[in-house]
Amino acid sequence: MTAILKEIRDLEARLSRGELEHAEYLRKRAALLDSVETAETEFAEPGRPAVTPRRSGGSSALALSIVVGLGVMTLCIALTLVLLPDLNMALTLGVTILAALSVTLLRDSEE
Whole domain around residue 18: which residue ranges? Predict the structure, then answer.
């Protein structure tokens, strides 16, 4: 392949110097490119797998996020109730901890 490229460059140089006419240059260049053999391989191109349409998983993702959110909030409230006997304080602190976790998770996913 390198030899053919060198010969094409020589033809271009001869064309720019005026030693060859444009038609003769094109004919010789085409003959050079046609002399290149194409490599035949036994490799078969892999077929593309059939793409199955996805169902919209929006409702299941929403349900899962609600369940996980309620579970984490319940866990936060239960742990807070162990430390503080006041229910209002436990709810407030549980929601605050859940909000802090949510902000942390969203901030990590943006980066």
Answer: 2-41
DSSP 53-95: PPPP-HHHHHHHHHHHHHHHHHHHHHHHHHH---HHHHHHHHH
The total of structural domains in the chain comes to 2
The tokens describing 23, both together, are 């038609």
Tens-digit pLDDT profile for the chain (111 aa)? Answer: 678 888 888 888 988 988 888 888 889 888 888 887 776 777 766 777 666 666 655 567 777 777 887 887 787 777 777 877 777 877 787 778 778 877 777 775 555
- Return the amino acid letter for 74: T
Q: Cβ distance 8 to 16 under 8 Å?
A: no
- 8 A C-beta contact, residue 4 and residue 32: yes
How far, in Å, are 26, 57, 84 from residue 80 at the CA level?
A: 85, 34, 6
